[in-house]
Amino acid sequence: MTAEPDESKPFPLRAVLGLVVGFLAATLWWNLLPGGPADVLPSLPAEPKTPAIEWSAEKGDDEFRVVAVGLSPTMGYPYLPVGVASFATLCDVGLRAAGAAAPKRIRVAPLAMDSADAPTVVELCRLALQHDPDLLLVELGANEASTRLFGERPLIGPGWLGALADRTTRARLPLDALGRELVGASEADGAGVDEPGESPQQRAIRRIFEARPGQPLVDGLPVTPLELEALADRAARAIDQIAELAAAAGVEVVVWTSPFDLHHAWPIGMVGVEPALDELVARLRAGEEVGLEEGFAAVENPGDRADAWRVVAELRRRHGVADRDDLPFRRARDLDPAPMHVVGPVIDAVAERAAALEGVHFEALADGLDAGFIDVTHPGLAGQRDLALRLRDLLARRDGLAASVPSRDSFLVAVDAFVAARIPTREARIAEGKGARIDVLTHMIFGAVRDALPRFAPALDGLRLEVAGPQDPDWQHWAVVAAVAAAGVAGDLESLGAGTDEERTRRIAEWSLELWNLEGSALTARLLDRAQRSR
């Protein structure tokens, strides 16, 4: 009797492996492309910080209303009271110089909040339309990428890959060490973080040393290309929503962006230091004449360095060499890793979408601004004045408004008189110091301590007007940052931090007193000298 053949099927190993591989591939794909990430990007509630717009409920036939919706530049930050230095407020003041004989009464008012991103701006526009404007001037684009780091909110969904990237972004470490401790301690630090018996100053020193300023803290862009794509998509969708809201109300929209003034600022956040390039930047900042050939020899190949491209562009501009489409400036913009600068795709998406929509158009109001927009923060009074004048020019070009717009000279006389009356010199210097301190923190967060040093002079000069003396905790905190920054550039953190907590606290307290007695250029020179001492 012969055995029956085994008719059982073999184990389907290949099919099972295929299913496993397919599942893993699908999971990876799902985390890389989580299905319309722009729909789930977190945003902020719309809470305008500017004063309430006090216009009559009914608009007269002779009235033309402009509401400037925007971010902290539209707020007039950091000048107080909020809104007083806004270009929208200044424009409103200047337009009044037209007098009662003007056929139209043009009114301009800001409606803005700091840190607003694209969805927040949409909601602000919704509020602005309640004031029956004829024109919405909308600023957006500058806060899209920075929200990710400074708001500690992930951009790409809660998947495991996004969570991993979010937890390994090193740029958030120095932000915690510097921002929380120097701007204000937070209960969110939790119990058990601080050493027993530490004074606030000792804690600040310890945390800053742990953050190791002066070292590159970000390798490449802190916002991924996928995140930038999602941000650009979200900004473009915001333009669509604003256009829809405005069309329903019969209102025209002008869009502009305020990422930074590329023509008059130096990119920050670069990883690595090139002495020849640094020396060239210092000479250009000092106003020295540098020949094209000599300058290009120092730059050599710009490669993927935003600061090198910025130098190339500056050299060409100073020597009257025209660049087609401002290529070096655009290249620097797209390579710069600072989160408030990484907005190239966002700006392009906003401008492209605005051009495609009826009733919406894009204005490059901030391009080539002669003053303000110092690196990553806000226009100073001169910059706000310039923006007000540009808005005046924009209105003068509109049909039916030219006769109601005063001459440029009359406009500026009215604006300058208002600024002189409402913003005393002392208050202006305090505000400029606040802006400089934001610059310093942002520079240091991204390891660009070499670029932070020149900004310490206005930062500490402004703070000196606010505090009682060199023993004031705010002053001592910033003196600590100055000392550590200079030591970080010099590669001398170890000697500065040597000894016990009491010894290094005393050492830096002496430095604080020394800085208190210096002003302006002398202070910057002392910091730079300290930075170069051990090189």
Task: Identify the notable features of this structure and list them briefly.
535 residues, mainly alpha, 5-stranded parallel β-sheet, 5 strands, 52% helix, 5% strand
Write a concise synopsis of the structure shown.
The protein has 535 residues and is mostly helical.
Give a structural overview.
- By secondary structure, the protein is mainly α.
- The chain contains 23 helices and five strands.
- It has helices at 13-32, 72-75, 87-95, 118-128, 146-150, 160-167, 172-183, 200-211, 225-249, 275-285, 292-299, 306-318, 327-335, 344-356, 381-396, 408-422, 425-445, 449-452, 456-466, 473-490, 493-496, 501-516, 520-532; strands at residues 63-70, 105-112, 135-139, 252-256, 360-362.
- Strands 2-1-3-4-5 form a five-stranded parallel β-sheet.
- Helix 4 runs parallel beside helix 9 (225-249), helix 10 crosses helix 12 and helix 20 (473-490) packs across helix 22 (501-516).
- The radius of gyration is 27 Å and the shape is globular.
- The N and C termini lie far apart (95 Å).
